[in-house]
């Protein structure tokens, strides 16, 4: 089975549309979204509609939780709070109800896969894993991890190979899972990449070959940025799309 796994769309319809089109050439059996469909961008309803129609399951992201009233986001910086407030106002009742019901994690028991938005250690805290020392915090719950734990949140593509006592960071390139390791993989961002590559990021996991693949695709950044500005959101939310930060 081939799983299409994507994350952090952040209301960027142009990026999401390009990813969906690219997936059509990947023979995907099931799609999963790791959260943050909303926040930052200009198309929260359009992206929510596409994700709800496309994926088998979506995980709750921190921006989703904030918009749905499921977390305190008063500590977010002003521009981010403004975007969240605006999205909460414009979301349709159906899309808001969908966000309110999203789970913090999902186990695909048949494939040994655990899906969550940030670190699996304290799910409701939405903590990052983008460095080995953060991945090392997962060692005390090693037996609870999936053979493959797939996350988003950092907007970076990262791979960490774990044993019960060690963590090794691997390059974020296509790889096959070894039987004596567990893996934590961060899939990057569809709608707001932050690795200085402005192309939308998405991934594929082949459960039979035990192979994980990283993919990128170009999209209409100018139109996505224009929609951010048209929505009167922070100008930097538009500008950063061009440079991938």
Assembly status: single chain
- Counting DSSP E segments of at least 2 residues, the number of strands comes to 12
What's the SSE pattern? EHEHEHHHEEHEEEEEEEHH
CATH-derived architecture: 4-Layer Sandwich
Structural class of the helices, strands and pairings? alpha/beta
Give the secondary structure arrangement, pairings included.
Blueprint: E1 2-6, H1 13-23, E2 30-33, H2 44-54, E3 57-58, H3 62-67, H4 78-90, H5 93-100, E4 105-108, E5 113-116, H6 132-136, E6 148-151, E7 157-163, E8 166-170, E9 175-176, E10 182-187, E11 200-206, E12 211-217, H7 221-230, H8 235-243
Parallel strand pairs: 1-2, 2-3, 5-6, 6-10
Antiparallel strand pairs: 1-11, 4-5, 7-8, 7-10, 9-12, 11-12
What does this structure look like?
With about 240 residues, the chain is an alpha/beta fold. The protein has a single domain (about 1-245), classed as Metallo-dependent phosphatases (Purple Acid Phosphatase, chain A, domain 2, 4-Layer Sandwich). Helix content is about 30%, strand content about 25%. It contains 8 helices and 12 strands. The strands form 2 sheets. A 6-stranded mixed beta sheet has the order 3-2-1-11-12-9. A 6-stranded mixed beta sheet has the order 4-5-6-10-7-8. A hairpin with a 4-residue loop joins strand 11 and strand 12 (about 210-215). Helix 7 packs antiparallel against helix 8. The longest helix has 13 residues, at about 80-90. It starts with a strand and ends with a helix. About 40% of the residues are buried.
């Amino acid at each position: 089975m081939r799983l299409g796994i994507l994350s952090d769309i952040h209301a960027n319809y142009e990026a999401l549309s390009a990813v969906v089109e690219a997936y059509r050439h990947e023979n995907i059996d099931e799609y999963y979204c790791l959260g943050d469909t909303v926040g930052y961008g200009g198309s929260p309803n359009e992206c929510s509609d596409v994700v709800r129609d496309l994926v088998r399951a979506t995980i709750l992201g921190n921006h989703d939780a904030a918009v749905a009233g499921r977390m305190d986001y008063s500590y977010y910086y002003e521009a981010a709070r403004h975007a969240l407030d605006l999205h909460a106002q414009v979301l349709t009742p159906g899309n808001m109800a969908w966000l309110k019901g999203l789970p913090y994690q999902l186990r695909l028991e048949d494939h040994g896969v655990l899906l969550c938005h940030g670190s699996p250690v304290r799910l409701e805290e939405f903590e990052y894993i983008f460095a080995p020392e953060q991945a090392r915090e997962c060692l005390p719950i090693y037996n609870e991890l999936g053979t493959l734990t797939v996350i988003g949140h950092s907007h970076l593509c990262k791979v960490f190979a774990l044993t019960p006592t060690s963590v090794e960071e691997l390059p974020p390139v296509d790889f096959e899972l070894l039987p004596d390791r567990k893996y934590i993989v961060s899939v990057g961002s569809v709608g707001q990449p932050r690795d200085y590559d402005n192309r939308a990021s998405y991934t594929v996991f082949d459960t039979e070959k035990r192979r994980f693949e990283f993919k990128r695709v170009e999209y209409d950044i100018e139109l996505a940025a224009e929609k951010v500005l048209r929505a009167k959101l922070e100008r930097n939310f538009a500008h950063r799309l061009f440079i991938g930060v």
